């Protein structure tokens, strides 16, 4: 029998009166391997012979046919069967950044698996920018898709293709795609320099589209109903222009992009929303990324980016006078709106990256009443990591398949429906409802998936219908790959 949500609320109220024990040690290496494996469960297209999540099969094989182009491949963003380009590109950027910053800490097998995960995305992203003055931003009608509960292998919903043609703007998606391709060119250069060159050339092309036709893609009336409210651009397109330029600068060493982020920083709002980083808002990540040049190269013209990065780090230090990030009673970073763990994983990633930048240059952040050095930043990141892996009031791992206590009823079609290999008969759109409404655990374990996470009071009901808490996403997992790589290599950090 499934415990009621009241049970979990009662449990939280009880444990909040007593300090919960902190684990001395986590199997970070195991968690790293599983966090990468998750992406194989999100694959669209023809699956390879070495596919390790074997309850999945080929899907979306006709994607792009209405445009007479091949748009197969890529990733489903979450528990649905739609390929949203905006979060997919961000996911790719974060996987690539994980390799760039922490790849040398990964075991060779997991570094290879991460590179495979990146390439699965970039092969698709290259297709989205393959036609002049056009970018394909989405495949699949989400409104129809979300009214069904069916396996990706059974999809009979419209595979509508959403594209933006010049002079209509798509600065956000094109800018993030430029960032993804540029960062991936760095991550994959050592293994395939020719492919890396292709990625960089297409990153430049995508950025030109983004910059020449400025505006948010979700403002286009011909696609708005398909991309909103799911992945609208809520926070503006300006950050993606700076983000794309910053990654092109890092990947190409071209001073043109340095000049771009110098001259456009104020006009495009580099100082805005410094405490946000995710698929829609790149400001905090942009500031950390650009700060590397300031810390290591005395690029004083970019000092405003570093000042914003420093300010962001101070907001994360509870002992700092400028701290204003909310935490749950159990210690998890909390921001309202659902899928909260996306904030915990991206912020943890930035903490570790900035700690590395500071350590290499023997610097710290002055937060007024306290100084925040590399150790302090890493300690904050570790608290988030350990909470996600089970050091929380419920003793629940929010990574599926890690530990003996993890969410059993995640909001994910492929996981919750019987595998096509166990149940080869077609399951139509509405026929999947019995599985959605079932209180039984999902039959297929989506190993490594990190769900949306608990409420602000640390409660979690393990309810498939509560998608804000129980749905995993690629952009929650992607930054966690780099985070886990660091702690797997430094398991005794405390």
From TrEMBL:
InterPro entries associated with the record: 6-hairpin_glycosidase_sf, 6hp_glycosidase-like_sf, Glyco_hydro_9, Glyco_hydro_9_Asp/Glu_AS, Glyco_hydro_9_His_AS
Under Enzyme Commission nomenclature, its number is 3.2.1.4
Q: Give yes or no: UniProt keyword Metal-binding.
A: no
- The secretion signal range is 1-23
Which reaction equations make up its catalytic activity? Endohydrolysis of (1->4)-beta-D-glucosidic linkages in cellulose, lichenin and cereal beta-D-glucans
Tell me one Pfam family matched here: Glyco_hydro_9
* Record-annotated Glycoside hydrolase family domain positions: 28-484
Per UniProt, the keywords (alphabetical) are:
Carbohydrate metabolism, Cellulose degradation, Glycosidase, Hydrolase, Polysaccharide degradation, Signal
Looking up PROSITE patterns in the UniProt record yields: GH9_2, GH9_3
Q: Which Gene3D superfamilies match?
A: 1.50.10.10
Active site: residue positions: 411, 462, 471
Q: Identify its protein family.
A: Belongs to the glycosyl hydrolase 9 (cellulase E) family.
Protein name, entry field: Endoglucanase
**What organism is listed for this UniProt entry?**
Hevea brasiliensis (Para rubber tree)
């Amino acid at each position: 029998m499934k415990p009621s949500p009241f049970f979990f609320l009662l449990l939280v109220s009880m444990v909040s009166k007593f300090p919960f024990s902190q684990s001395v040690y986590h199997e970070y290496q195991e968690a790293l391997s599983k966090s990468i494996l998750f992406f194989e469960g999100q694959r669209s297209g023809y699956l390879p012979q070495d596919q390790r999540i074997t309850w999945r099969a080929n899907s979306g094989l006709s994607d792009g046919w209405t445009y007479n182009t091949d748009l197969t491949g890529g990733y489903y963003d979450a528990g649905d069967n739609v390929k949203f380009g905006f979060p997919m590109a961000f996911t790719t950027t974060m996987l690539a950044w994980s390799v760039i910053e922490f790849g040398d800490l990964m075991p060779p097998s997991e570094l290879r698996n991460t590179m495979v995960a990146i390439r699965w995305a970039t092969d698709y992203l290259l297709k989205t920018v393959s036609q002049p003055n056009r970018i394909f931003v989405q495949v699949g009608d989400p409104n129809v898709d979300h009214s069904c509960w069916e396996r990706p292998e059974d999809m009979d919903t419209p595979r509508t293709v959403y594209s933006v043609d010049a002079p209509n703007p798509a600065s956000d998606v094109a800018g993030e795609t430029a960032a993804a391709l540029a960062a991936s060119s760095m991550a994959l250069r050592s293994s395939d320099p020719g492919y890396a060159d292709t990625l960089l050339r297409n990153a430049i092309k995508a950025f030109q589209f983004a910059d020449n036709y400025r505006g948010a893609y979700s403002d286009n009336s011909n696609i708005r109903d398909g991309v909103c409210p799911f992945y609208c651009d809520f926070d503006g397109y300006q950050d993606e222009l700076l983000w794309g330029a910053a990654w092109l600068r890092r990947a190409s060493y071209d001073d043109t992009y340095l000049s771009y982020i110098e001259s456009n920083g104020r006009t495009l709002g580099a100082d805005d929303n410094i405490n946000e980083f995710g698929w829609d808002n790149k400001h905090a990540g942009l500031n950390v990324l650009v700060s590397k040049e300031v810390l290591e190269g005395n690029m004083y013209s970019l000092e405003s980016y570093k000042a914003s990065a420093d300010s962001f780090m101070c907001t994360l230090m509870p002992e700092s006078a400028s701290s204003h990030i909310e935490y749950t009673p159990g210690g998890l970073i909390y921001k309202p709106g659902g899928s909260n763990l996306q904030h915990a994983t991206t912020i943890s990633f930035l903490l570790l990256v900035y700690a590395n930048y500071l350590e290499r240059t023997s610097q710290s952040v002055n937060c007024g009443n306290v100084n925040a050095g590399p150790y302090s930043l890493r300690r904050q990141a570790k608290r988030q990591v350990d909470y996600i892996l089970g050091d929380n009031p419920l003793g629940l791992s929010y990574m599926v398949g890690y530990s003996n206590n993890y969410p059993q009823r995640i909001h994910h079609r492929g996981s919750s429906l019987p595998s096509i290999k166990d149940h080869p008969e077609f399951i139509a759109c509405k026929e999947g409802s019995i599985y959605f409404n079932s209180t039984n655990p999902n039959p297929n374990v989506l190993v490594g998936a990190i769900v949306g996470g608990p409420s602000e009071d640390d409660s979690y009901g393990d309810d498939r219908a509560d998608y804000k808490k129980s749905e995993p996403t690629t952009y929650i997992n992607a930054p966690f790959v780099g985070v886990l790589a660091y702690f797997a290599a430094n398991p005794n950090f405390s």
